[in-house]
Design brief:
About 45% of the residues lie in helices and about 20% in strands. It has about 425 residues and is α+β, with helices and mostly antiparallel strands.
């Protein structure tokens, strides 16, 4: 799968028209409406789209209250839905045969997860299917009183312009589009407090129903991004600011993936880290570890006490935890230092920080797979920066290339049998 880059010097913002695919074949909303009618035999009553997203840095530190730099892409996900006469959620993705789930089953699973978390028991593992995730959006909106309790089931068609497993937040975009279609209309479209609530509801749902770690910043960026800007989400104070986009007249951003190379190679390892962070956060009664003064030494002392009282079962070793905590602090500092570099367009120093982050993902946090080698290959082929799209979840990488070299860069990688997609700046849901 390849979308050829624009010619050097032709990098005007085309995000309002959707992706290159969308411009050539009609908007994603037009296509998903037609798909819904063909699959379910009726026209949809709800239609919306949301951007896919990619992380420049920080996707592993949102869970500790860190800083995430995330951009919206012009590749969008469209949703078309219509109410059913029962409480089932039926979902067709890219024209495939629909799969179903009963809202009763969705609700039962959600409450079993919440109950297990409250009791610090072993939390049930979700399957992460499309009906579960979109049914979870309905459940979360009802739970947060954004939808009435008598909301029916839905027939839902999903159309994605981006691959699902490249770490570009396709599921998150679909969830945001569906939630927006359900609660956002022309009268409240500019209501940013509502958008904040919708983002929180979508993340709550994903935290329960996603089979891979959900990134909060994707939902924030998809709903609150500004055209041609990168969102800087700081979870210590819940602030969202913006910087100039790294893609411009002089630089092009690509997503690169090796075919037949599915992501999520180490989900158990990702789950171990998240479980440790959750236990430590609960132990100190703070919203996030970044709200805890002297977090690293205090968490190490707590973990040492846990080892002495309960043994090492179910928690990491002190050496592992120390590496993770040091990674969290260093990655948050790297994200902080990138903000002024983006504003000053200092690509040279920015690339050094991205390279340091990639090394840390591999050496300190130990979640990289073949994406680490792919990032190295992209740099050897002339990329200014190349970094895992979401290490541990996807094996794709995000590469930033000088515009004068973009066409040759993409062509060389395609000749190598790799898949390349250009990521232009996108617009909010």
């Amino acid at each position: 799968m390849t979308i050829s880059p624009q010619q050097p010097g032709d990098h005007s913002d085309s995000s309002s028209a959707g992706s290159a695919k969308g411009s050539a074949e009609g908007s994603v909303c037009d296509r998903v409406k037609a798909g819904h009618t063909a699959i379910f035999g009726s026209e949809p009553t709800l239609v919306a789209s949301a951007p896919t997203t990619w992380s420049l840095l920080g996707e592993h530190v949102d869970v500790v209250g860190g800083i995430v730099l995330v951009a919206s892409s012009d590749l969008r996900v469209g949703i078309a839905a219509s109410p059913r006469s029962d409480n089932n959620i039926s979902v067709s993705v890219n024209g495939a045969k629909p799969n179903h789930i009963a809202m009763g089953d969705v609700s039962d699973f959600a409450f079993s997860v919440l109950d297990a978390r409250d009791k610090t028991e072993s939390v049930p593992s979700p399957h992460g299917s499309w009906p579960e995730r979109l049914g979870g959006v309905v459940w979360s909106l009802i739970f947060r009183q954004l939808l009435p309790r008598d909301t029916p089931g839905f027939n839902i068609a999903v159309e994605s312009e981006a691959p699902v497993d490249w770490g570009l937040g396709v599921h998150a975009a679909a969830e945001v589009a569906f939630a927006s279609a359900l609660v956002v209309d022309d009268e409240n479209r500019g209501d940013y407090p509502l958008r904040v609530r919708v983002a929180e509801a979508c993340f709550q749902s994903a935290a329960i129903f996603s089979a891979t770690p959900a990134l909060r910043a994707r939902y924030t960026a998809a709903l609150r991004s500004m055209d041609g800007q990168i969102s800087v989400v700081d979870y210590k104070d819940e602030s969202v600011t913006h910087t100039p986009h790294i893609a411009g007249r002089n630089t092009v951003v690509f997503a690169v993936n090796a075919p037949h190379n599915p992501g999520g190679q180490i989900p158990e390892e990702m789950a171990r880290r998240l479980d440790f962070i959750d236990k430590a956060t609960r132990a100190f009664g703070v919203e996030s570890l970044r709200h805890l003064p002297d977090a690293a030494p205090r968490v190490r002392d707590w973990l040492e006490a846990v080892h002495k009282v309960h043994g090492p079962s179910g928690v990491p070793s002190l050496q592992e935890a120390t590496r993770w905590l040091e990674f969290f602090e260093a990655e948050t500092r790297r994200a902080q230092s990138m903000v002024p570099l983006l504003r000053s367009r200092n690509v040279a120093e920015l690339s050094d920080i991205v390279a340091a982050s990639q090394r840390a993902l591999n050496d300190d946090y130990s979640v990289s797979g073949t994406d680490s080698a792919l990032a190295q290959l992209c740099r050897s082929r002339g990329a200014v920066t190349a970094r895992s799209a979401h290490a541990g979840v996807s094996n794709a990488v995000i590469a930033v290339v000088e515009a004068t070299h973009a066409s040759n860069f993409a062509a060389d990688l395609v000749d190598d049998g790799l898949e390349v997609i250009e990521l232009r700046p996108g617009t909010a849901a």
